[in-house]
Amino acid sequence: MTSIKVENLFGGYSGEPVLTDVSFTVEQGEFFGILGPNGSGKTTLLKMISGVLPFLKGSIFVGDRSIQSFSAKELAQVIAVLSQHSSQAFSYTVKETVALGRYAHKKGLFQTWSQKDEEVVQEVMQWTGIEKFQEQSLEFLSGGEKQRVFLAQALAQEPEILLLDEPTNHLDLSYQKDLLDLLHKWTREKGLTIISIFHDINLAGLYCDRILLLEDGKVIKNDTPKDVLTENTIQQVFKTKIEMHQHPKVPAPLMVLLPDDALENGGTEEVTENHVGVFDDYILLQSPMMLKTMSSGVIGSGIGWYNTFINRYVDKSYHSRNYREELKRFVVEEGLDPSNTVGMMTAVKMENVQYKQYLDKDFSILVVVTAGVGNAVDVSRSVEHPFVYRPGTINTWIIVNGRLSEEAFIQSIITATEAKVKALAELQIPDQETGTIATGTSTDSILIAATQKGKYQEFAGTITPLGKLIGKGVYECTLEAIQKSLKRSPDL
Amino acid sequence: MAASILLVAAILIGISIGTVTVPIGDIVKIIGSRLFNISHVNVDPMYTTIVWNIRFPRVVLAGLVGASLAIAGAAFQGLLKNPLADPYTLGVSSGASVGAVLTIFLHITIPVIGSYTLPFLSILFALITIIAVLIFAKRIDRSMKVETIILTGVIFSSFLSAFISLMIALTGDELRQIVSWLMGSVSMRGWEYIQIILPFFLIGSFLLLMNGNELNAMSFGEERAQHLGVNVKRRKMLVLTAGSILTGAAVAVSGTIGFVGLVIPHLTRLLWGPDHKHLLPLSMLTGSAFLILADLTARTVISPTELPIGVITSLIGAPVFAAILIRNKRKGGER
Q1: CB A234 within 8 A of CB A205
Q2: pLDDT in tens, B120-156
Q3: In this complex, which of A88, A93, A103 lies closest to B229 when CB atoms are compared?
Q4: CB–CB of A88 and B228 under 8 A?
Q5: Each residue of B113-125: pLDDT tens digit?
Q6: pLDDT at residue A94 above 80?
Q7: What is the DSSP letter of A137?
């Protein structure tokens, strides 16, 4: 059971103090990250823990022994180090290099190569995936391969604690992930303790159990990634503008840099009715800029940045198992870029579209609705419906010329939905199955998009300025679109 | 194995060839009879004198000097991760020379050690020089680049050579002795010189051979070696001392013979790989064979005049030095 305990550590290079009163403990099996701007003392700290740099004051305990009581060999049996830069003057083979990791376990004047040495070396070469080129000379390997060789060398020491100085520095993306996945697994399975300096804040957030944040040689924070990697802390320590989000797939913080010119409210361009084109078999909205979009479309659904929005008419008999791919192909055929496109489908004729721009004092929205109510459903009694597809869909688009918070996106959807329900109630659209008033159709889609420039809209509830505009716009457009479709084909 | 055969062949050829050629069979007989105390051997007594009193000690001395310089060079190169390091380029040989010249110039004899005063002072000056060179190199450039160390070595070499020249200018009758000694030679030395170098040779090479693994680790950098569990401070001092002992003793008996410690380890590394556990002993074998053959060339090529042996080694060594430098630079560029 080996933990590392650092107490009131002071020290640096030749009289110049780098670290001031640093204390922390790392438990066995922890993946412990060290973060900090350049010159904050990360490497100095790691050098002291690895025993190569003496310190002025304080103490470091490895297990229950002071680090100063270890001989170099004893320490190397417990702690291994993977440095940022590794150099070699002569062309050792991969295996010779890895085998040096066994040095700490050798005894006596004549250090013989034992069966166990060979086994360990072969094993670590397998783990790191370098056994294929074990007879090759080091100088012919790529930076990433070399880094793995030195990792294998460190692991051949069979350490209980592994110190890493920006281990992924020279590695390709896939190797970064592989290496950190592997190390993380070992902390869990083998109880390996890892103390690692990170350069990449997001990587640290993904893999570390705890993070020590250093600034000017002092500990600013020592806590879980979630508590260390907050927008305020990181902005203060790293002195740059960032935004903290959340990783979409795992519960980890995700930091994003904000380029200066993205923050300027450059351009007064807006999305207007003029950007909408109605064609025989589709409606196309091409925005002059990328819009942050939240939608339930067929392609480009979810949250993302898009500038092309298409609502395509398909015949009632349309049937494609792979409708997503089919729609993508259609988009490509029309000369549009599917990666920038949100696409929806409807069996409603395109002439039944209703779109209009609504203006407030300092912002505006554009609402586009296509509606058919052939399969209108009363949501409160939808359990009585058989699962049968009938054509007839209400697709609602709301484009906001303004800057929306995430809450505002969600509230916009609520507000728009309420307005739609109201429109259906107003027109007494029945649910054919139950005979009650319908609240929508079974296949409705919605899209909220915002330029993210101009006036900031934090909320979009029904009585906020944005909510008011959405309520009015969606209600009116839905009403008119349904009326148009009823006029043309009353059965829909 | 190949290296041992090479050495034996070099010894036999080295003894055999000269103004009088001695058949190899007779050489074996003569040496065998001396070593195993057999009194009656059917060999020309003139051959016996030539072989036992002149050529054999000369070849053995050349071999010991070659082995000392080569293993010292290999160790310096590993320690400093510097393929250009050798006792000569680091200025260690010059340092040892200053010690030797001082001894001769001032007629110093330290009581108790007597005839070992010369190697003792050579070794002492060699050690002081290498430590001074390393401290200076570190002052100039913390990362101790290959070129920085060599440049510092050259500066020290020049300074020490100037110092030696000064002493020569001040001497009267010792002049010829010093000059011929300075050029580097193993001729007319006899068995007493072998007695001088042998103990130092044994101690120095034993110390280095014990540090093969440590040198391997240190050729990845001192910090890396420390991480791997090497007591870098102690091992470094040990290697520097052993290297200085070997260089100092070699210089004391044969003057400055350049580039052996550079060329031989390099060649050995090319043939057998960089692992110091093999590199060190193999460098010794090839180094002694090389110097025996170089000495043979030196005394036969424009016979009856003898060339200083250092001329031969430098003629071979300097171009190799240049080649390694270019190769190294190129590798550096790609990194």
Answers
A1: no
A2: 888 999 999 989 988 888 888 776 676 788 888 889 9
A3: A103
A4: no
A5: 777 888 888 899 9
A6: yes
A7: B
Residues of chain B contacting A103 with CB distance shorter than 8 Å? 213-214, 217, 228-230
User: What does the pLDDT read at residue A365?
Assistant: 94
Using the beta-carbon criterion (under 8 Å), do B216 and A52 form an inter-chain contact?
Answer: no
Indicate if the pLDDT at residue A492 is higher than 50. no
CATH topology (fold) of A273-488: L-amino peptidase D-ALA esterase/amidase (3.60.70)
Average of pLDDT values for A265-283?
83
The pLDDT tens digits of the residues spanning A306-341 come to: 999 999 988 877 777 788 888 899 999 988 999 999
d(CA A471, CA A40): 53
Q: Which chain A residues touch B83 with a CB distance below 8 Å?
A: 89-90
Option in A71, A88, A101 nearest B219 (CB): A88
Chain B residues contacting A, CB < 8 Å?
Answer: 77-78, 81-83, 146, 210, 213-214, 216-217, 219-221, 223-224, 226-232, 269, 273-275, 331
Model confidence at A381, in pLDDT bands (50, 70, 90)?
A: confident
Q: B87, B261 in Cβ contact below 8 A?
A: yes
A50 touches chain B (CB under 8 A): yes
How many residues are listed for chain A in this entry?
492
The domain ranges of chain B are: 14-53, 71-334
Is the per-residue pLDDT at B161 higher than 60? yes
Substitution target in B76, B79, B220 with the highest count of A β-carbons within 10 Å is: B220
CA dist., res. B328 & res. B335, Å (int): 11
Strands (E), A117-181: 161-165
Contacts of B274 in chain A (CB under 8 A): 90-92, 96
pLDDT band of residue B174 (cuts 50, 70, 90) is low
What pLDDT was estimated at residue A448? 95
Contacts of B221 in chain A (CB under 8 A): 86-87
The predicted-structure confidence for B186-242, as pLDDT tens digits, reads as follows: 776 778 889 889 999 999 999 999 999 999 999 998 889 999 999 988 898 899 899
With CA atoms as reference, the chain A residue closest to B206 would be: A109
Q: Considering CB atoms only, which of A72, A93, A101 is closest to B226?
A: A72
Nearest to B274 among A92, A104, A111 (CB): A92
Domain spans of chain A, in order of start = 4-257, 273-488
CA nearest to B228, candidates A252, A83, A415: A83
pLDDT: which is higher, A261 or B165: B165
- Chain A: residue whose CA lies nearest to B207: A109
> Torsions phi, psi of B71, nearest 5?
-70, -35
Regarding the domain with residue range A4-257, which homologous superfamily does it belong to in the CATH classification?
P-loop containing nucleotide triphosphate hydrolases (3.40.50.300)
Mark residue A331 as left, alpha or beta (left: phi above 0; alpha: psi -120 to 50; beta: remaining). alpha
Q: Which residue, among A197, A335, A320, A222, has the nearest Cα to A277 in the 3D structure?
A: A335
Using DSSP bridges, classify how beta strands A253-257 and A242-246 pair: parallel, antiparallel or unpaired. Answer: antiparallel
User: Which fold would CATH assign to domain B71-334?
Assistant: ABC transporter involved in vitamin B12 uptake, BtuC (1.10.3470)
Does A113 reach chain B within 8 Å, measured CB to CB?
no
The CA distance from A194 to A6, in Å, is 15
- ipTM of predicted complex: 0.83
